[in-house]
Prior knowledge:
The complex is a heterodimer of chains A (609) and B (608). With 609 residues, chain A is α/β, with parallel strands linked by helices. Helices cover 62% and strands 9% of the residues of chain A.
Amino acid sequence: MPNSKTSKDKKYVKLPWFGIPRLMPFLKPYLPKMAMMIFLGSMVSMVDSFIPLFNRYALNNFIAKGTTKGIGYFALIYATVLIVKLVMDFISANTCGEIEMSIDRDLRNAAFNHLQELSFSYFNQNNVGYIHARVMSDTGKIGVMCAWRLMDIVWNGSYILFVLIVMLAVNVRLAMYILMLIPIAIVLVIYFQRHLIILNRHIRELNSTITGNFNEGITGAKAIKTLVIEDRIQNDFRKDTENYRKNAVHATHFSAMFSASVTMLSSCALALVLWRGGKITMEGVMEIGTLSIFLSYALGILEPIQNIIVTISDLIAVQVNVERLTRLLGTESDVADSPEVIEKYGDTFNPKKENWEELIGDVEFKDVSFHYPDGKEYVLEHFNLKVPQGTNVAIVGETGAGKSTLVNLVCRFFEPTSGEVLIDGRNAKERSQLWLHSNIGYVLQTPHLFSGSVRENLKYGNPDATDDKIWDALKLVSADKIVERMDNGLDSDVGEGGDMLSTGEKQLLSFARAILADPRILVLDEATSSIDTVTEKAIQDAISVVIKGRTSFMIAHRLSTVVDADVILVVKDGKIIERGTHKELMKNVGGYYHQLFSRQFEEMEAKAI
Amino acid sequence: MKTTKEQFPTKLSLVLFFLRGSKALFFAGILFSMAVAFLDMVNPKIIQYTVDYLIGDSESVMPFYMQMLINLTGGKDYLKGHIFVIALIVVLIALVCAAFRYLNKLFNSMAAEKLICRMRDILFEHICHLPFSWHGENHTGDIIQRCTSDVETIKVFLSEQLTALFRIVIMIGLGIYFMFQIDLKLSLLSAAFIPIIVLYSLFFHNKIGSAFEHADVEEGKLSAIAQENLTGVRVVRAFGREKFERERFEAKNKDYTKMWINLMRLLAAFWTSNDMISGMQGMTMLVMGSIFCVNGSITVGELIAFVSYNAMISWPVRVLGRVISEMSKAGVSIDRLRYIMNSEVEKDKEGAIEPPLDKDIEFKDVSFSYNNGQAEILKDVSFTVKAGETVGVLGGTGSGKSTLMYLLDRLYNLPEDGGSITIGGVDIRDMKMDYLRENIGLVLQEPFLFSRTLYENIGITNKSAGIEDIRKAARMASLDETIKSFDDGYDTFVGERGVTLSGGQKQRTAIAQMLVSEPPIMVFDDSLSAVDTETDAKIRAALDMHVGRATTIIISHRITTLMHADHIIVLSHGKVAEEGTHEELLAKSGLYRRIYDIQIQGGGEDIA
C-alpha cells in the first residue's frame, strides 16, 4: 500500500461570512437561544455604558446644587439597575456557555459518526493525528467562535454604539473630538494585529517543533543512548530553543508597542476632553458632571474597539478550522451501501438484523480489476478466483508486495475498480457492509487493543460471550496462561492501546478475540510474525482447528505456515503471479514460489545434512 | 553546557537555579512596571486640580509638588487662560508612561524567554543523560507533559503571575494612598470592600480549580476514545462495531459536555456576581462621596479623583484572588520538575578506561532482574564470544535475550553481585560508557528514526560520513534500491512529519546507520524480524563479505538467520539451555532441534 502522507492545508482560508452558512445546520437548533443571548448581552452593554450617567447626575443634581435630597432614591435606582444587570449578565453568559458546549458536542458527534462510515481510502490518505485534530480541536474552536466570539462582538459593539449615542446626545462638539480618534485607533489596531498574527503563528510552530523534540528525545532514548548521539541531539535542541527565544522576544516587542500605543491614544483622548471640555465648562457652557462622563468615556472607549478587532482576527483564523471540519463532513465514502441495501439491511448504526441472510462463506472474485484510489497503477487485472466455503487461502510474497490488497477487497474496505466480488454467489454490494463485517474475524499485523479490561477487549467482536466461552477461546490460542498470570484475570486493564502487554501477548489476545466472534470468514494478516517459534507453533495448531469449516485468508511471512493451505497466491510487485497448492507450485521449478521456498529451506538442509 | 549533578532539596533552590541569567531582567521589568503604576495614578490628580483650581475656584492648600508644577508651567492664572497646557502635560506623562510600559513588557519578556529557554535546555540535557532504566520506569506522556505544560506553568508563574502580583499590590497600595489623602473615612469604606472581593474570588478559584482538573481528565478520556477508534479503524470495521463505538463516544461526549456546561454556569455566576459587588462598591462610593461633597468635606475635583482611583483599583482587586489561587498551582509543577532534576544521571566510575574492544566478550554468571524482588530475567548466564566470531542467540519471548544485550551496552547496569561481563578481560563497568556504546553497534528490534532525512538518519553517528559512505552502508543493508525509489531519494524526510517507512525498511535503515560507524562489535537484536527471508539472506551475505572482522552477535527466532553462526546459544527462561554449532545442536535433539523441526516442518517432505 502506498505510504500515507500528511495532508497539507492552506494556512489562509477565506469563506463567505466567516463560514457561518456552512455551519448553519449545526447552529439552527440554537438560534432562539442565540437571539436571547444577543439581546441580553446588548442590554448588559447598554447598562454598562449608562453607568457614568449616574456620576453625572450626582455631580449635577446633588453636588452642584449642594443638596442630598433624593439621594436615597438615587442609590436605590442605581442598585436596582446593578441587580437587573447581574441577572441579564448571568443569563446571557450562561446561555453562551451552553451554546458553545452544545455546538461543540454536536459537531464532535457528527464528525465521529461520519468517520465511522468513511472508507479506508480516507484513512490511508490522512494520518490519525490529523483526523483526530478535526474531531477534537476544530470542533472546540468552532464552538468558541459561535458562542464567545459572537458574544464579544455583541458586548463590545453595543457598548461602543451606546456610548456614542450618549456622547452625541450630551454634547455633540465634545463627542466629535473623541470620534476623530476612533479611525486612528482602528488603523493602529489593525496594523499591529496583522503583524502579531503572523508572528504568533510562527511562534506556535516553533513551539510544536520543541515539543516534537522532547517527544523524540524521550521516546528515542534507547536509540540515542545506543548511538551515543546525546551531544548532537542536544546541540540541535539548543538551536531550536534559542530560535524560539529570539522570535518570542521579537513578538513581544511588537505587542508591547501595540499596548503602549493604544494606552497612549487613550491618554490623548483624555487630554483632548480635558482641554476642550475644561474650557467650555469654565465658560459655564457645560456642567461639571457632563465633563466627568466624557472623561470616563474617553478612557473607556478604546478598549472595546481593540477587542472587536482582535475578535475579528480570531474569526478569520477559525475559518481554517471551519473549512477543514466541513470538508471532513462533506467527504463521501468510496464504499457506500446503496439506498436499496440500506432499506433492506439497515445502515451502520441501525441494522435490520431480521433481514440478514446467514453468511455461508463462498467468496468469488469475478473479473476483478483494482487500483487504489490514490494510485494509478492497477494491482489486480481481470482477476478470477473461486474460494468455496471452508477454503483456506494463503497469500505470500515479499514485504510491501501488496499482500493486503485481496483481503481489503474481501472485507470490502475497498471496492473493485471493475468486476465484482461475490459473497455466497451475490455481489458484495447487494448486502450491507455491516452484514459482511459482522461475519468476518480479523487479526492484524499490528495488533490493536482498546484500553479497558481483557474481557472488554475479547468481547469486542461478540458482546454476548460468556466467561466460559472466553476462556475456551483463550485456551485455543494458548493465551489462557497470559491472562491467568495477570493480577485481575479477565478484569485486568490492558492499558492504552494495550501497552501493558507485549506485542506477542497482544497478538494472542487479538486472536482469541477473532475466534470469539465466531466468524464465517477469517482474515489473518501476518499474525504470527513477532511471536517466538514455540508460541507460534501453539497458535498454528489453534489456527488449523479454527479455520476448519471456515473460509480463511492468511497473509503469511513464513512459508512453513502456508504449506497446508488449499490455495496459495504468490504476490510480487503488487500482482498475483502464481497460484496453486503447495505441491503444484513446487512443481514449477524455477518459479518464484519455488525460489522463495527453496531458499529458506535449502539453507537449513545444507546445514542439517 | 554540562549537565548539572546538583540536587535540589527545595522548590526555591530549583527556581533559583532556573532563574540564573534572567533575574536582572525580571528586576528591570518590575521596576518599570512600578513606574507605570505610579504614573497612571497621576492623571486623576491632574483632573482633580484642574476641576478644583482652574475650572472651580478652590483656595485650599495644595501639596508642594502640585504647586511647583503649576508655578513651573506659568502659574494658576496663566493656566486658567491656557488650559491646553494641562492637556499637554497629560500627553507628556502619557508618552513617558507608554515608553515605560513598553520597556516593562520587553524586559519581562526577555527575562521570561531566557528563563524558558534555559529550563528547556537543562531539562532536555538532563533527560538525555538519565539512565535508560529511568525511561523505562516513567511514562513518556508524563515526562513530555512535565517538559511542556509544567515548564509553561512555571514560566507563567514567574513572568506573569508573580510580576502581576507586584503590579497589583503596588497599584492597590498607591491607589489607597491617594484615596486616603483625599478623605480618610471614604477611603476606609472603599478599602473595606477589598478583603471581601479578594476572599470571595480566592475561595471560588480554589474550589473551581479541582473541577477544571476533573474536566481535563474527562477531556483526555474522550480524546482517547477518538484516538483509539481512529488507530483501530480496521478492527472496528472488521468486527462491525461502528454502532457500539458511536454509542460509547456519544455517551462520553454527553457527560463531558454536561460537566462543562455546569462548570461554565459556576464561572458565569462568579464573574457576574463579582462584577456586581464591584458595581455596588462604585455606587456606594459615589453616593457617600456626593454626601461628603455636599457636606463640604471634599471638593468636586477630589470626588472625581476619588471615584477614578476607586475604579482604577477595582480591576486589580478583582484579579488578585485569581492570581493568588493560580500561583498555588505552580508549586506542584515545580515539584514535578524537581523529580526529573533530582533523578541521577548516568556517570562513569572514577578512573574509567577505554581499552581496545576487538577482544573476546565474556559473560560470566550474569544474573539480572529489572526490579528488585521481581523474578530474575537472567540466571547465571555464562558464555564467551570470541573476537571476530559470529554468535547466534536463540530464545523465546521473555527468555532474556534482549536484556543480555542491554546489559552489554550498559543500557542497564549489571549490579555488582550479578556476575560480570568483560571484554578482553576488562569489566565493562570499569569502562567509559560512551566509549563502550560507540564501539558496540546495537541494532534494536524496534528501531527509532529521527524526524530528519534518510541521509541524516543513516549518518547520524558519524558527521563526517559523505554520501558515498552512506550509500555503501545502505547497499549493505539492502536499502539503497528502496531509497532510490523514493521521490526525494536520500533527502526523503522520515518520522512523524514525513514518510512512514515499513517495519522492514526501518530495520534496514537502522542497520545501515550502525554500519556507517563500523564498530568492532555488532549486535543485531532481532533486527531482521520484519525483513522477509530473501532480504534477510542478502543482508547477511553482504555483512559476511564486508565486515568479517567485527565480533557479531545475532539474536533471532528464525533458524535460517542463526544457523550460519560460528556458535549458537539457546536461551530459555533466563538460562543457557544449549550451546554449540548448528550441527551439534541438531544432533542434541533438544530445544533447538524442536524449534528447527517446527520451522522446517511441512517443507520437509517435499525437499528431503
